[in-house]
Amino acid sequence: MTLTATPALVERVVARTVEIAAIAAPPLDEADRTSLVQRWWTADGLEEVAVDRVGNVWARIRPGARVVARAEPAAASAAAVAAEPAAGTGAGAGAAAPARPAVVIAAHLDTVFGRDVAHGAVGDGRYLRGPSVGDDSIALASLSALAELLPADMAVPVWILATVGEEGLGNLIGITTALAEPRTPVATLVALEGNWLGRVCHTAVGSVRWRVTITGPGGHAWERADAPSAVHTAARAIDALVGITRPTGARTAINVGRMGGGESINSRAISAWFEVDLRADSQAALDALDATVRQAISGAIATDNTDNTGTADTADTADTPGGTGGTGGTGTTSTGTTDTDAAGRAQVTATFDEIGRRPAGHLAVDHPIVAAAADALRAAGRTVTYTAASTDANAAHRIGIPAVAIGVTIGEGEHTEAEWIDLEPVAEGLCVLADTVIRIAATLGANP
Ligand SMILES: [Zn+2]
Fold first, then answer.
1. How far is the CA of 194 from the centre of ligand 1 (A)?
2. Are residues 104 and 120 in contact, defined by beta-carbon separation less than 8 angstroms?
3. What single-letter DSSP state applies at residue 102?
4. Residues of the chain with CATH 3.40.630.10
5. 144, 185, 235, 311, 332 from 339: Cα distances, Å
6. How far apart are alpha carbons 27 and 135 in whole angstroms?
7. Mean predicted confidence (pLDDT) in 383-399
């Protein structure tokens, strides 16, 4: 039996993609999109439409069979496929027993673009162009199509979720909150990315981001030529990162993407800063990398403090509290001891401000959830590409909920204003999405 997305359904998905892509939604500033999605899903007649405390929108597509009810074996089978209008009620819905844990399909409301960027999708034959069309507007527009595509009676509940804070400094706050305070127990998370049709992302790339600020006593470049300089120390610390031996057995990356500091060309710098982005495809490697990098930076500070022979200018530093020492953990920490050592030599200190943290995770290619997503693509005649990326799925991995990320159509240029998607594969992508959910449900149904 074959799933079919009707032309009317595809037309609605495309129209909604255009509608939501016209709305700016920087991370943690998505309220306009939140209200629109809430209106869509209410108009669709979905049940349990609600906005949670951080601005995620939830809705239920299928209630699933109650635990005490005997699930219809055919309802959870991959073969039981029918394109029919959602009935809104499922097998055993009247029972008092709790529903089984649900399959939740999520797409993110936010974009990487500020409010100053002109939004709006422009049609160009079979293509749609504009900021966020693929990442993640068409995914948002596609979620409620599941109400039409999935079988009316499913043993496993199916919910959809539009999340805030997936991009950049949003730090996955939306999905993290959604999974910590779920409106229904969650068995599996499927993160939907608009332009990833053909990909199955089974590895969640984790990241840790630090802004490191180096502070020194400053001084005249000639008169206090032996005093430490925050800029010199920052350079030494960055150089130390370049030479780090990275953890083996995982893919990792260290990047210092931005730096700055200093007050004038003829001053020993009082302040300098740089931002470090660490990534890994396993949590153990990410933790190890994080510790090693902090150690390298602290080591560079210590070396500078040992090497310098400059005397502190107490008038400059008397009001400046020294660092508190210590490494690890979150928030702001400092390394270095005081602004002067026992011999009265000027010292530099470093402050670490955590500006991002995303957990890593991984499912094997033969994990049933990964296999379900891959099989749905293959059944549609697609070649499967297994990928690693950072998505809402990262937050699920952290708490042991199996998760994958998949797509709706193809396109490129995400995170640029030249972003585009191809509308031709949308019907196919919607069916692959529904088939993936059916296959995942069958997996869960077999192990209630
Ligand atoms: Zn995205």
1. 7
2. no
3. E
4. 7-204+360-445
5. 59, 52, 19, 11, 18
6. 13
7. 97
In a 3-state reduction of DSSP, which class is residue 240? helix
pLDDT of residue 28: 96
Domain 206-358 is found in CATH 3.30.1330.10? no
What's this model's pTM, rounded to 2 decimal places? 0.82
Query: 176 CA distance to ligand 1 centroid (A)?
Result: 15
Q: How far apart are the CA of 63 and the centre of ligand 1, in A?
A: 27
Label each residue of 353-377 as H, E or C: EEEEEECCEECCCCCHHHHHHHHHH
How many helical (H) and strand (E) elements, i.e. helices and strands, does the chain have? 11, 20
How far apart, in whole angstroms, are the C-alpha atoms of residue 363 and residue 281?
A: 11
Q: How far is the CA of 243 from the centre of ligand 1 (A)?
A: 32
CB 396 within 8 A of CB 176: no
Determine what percent of the chain is predicted with pLDDT higher than 90. Answer: 77
Written as six digits, the tokens of 99 are 């529903």
* CATH homologous superfamily of 7-204+360-445: Zn peptidases (3.40.630.10)
Numbered ranges of CATH 3.30.70.360 in the chain: 206-358
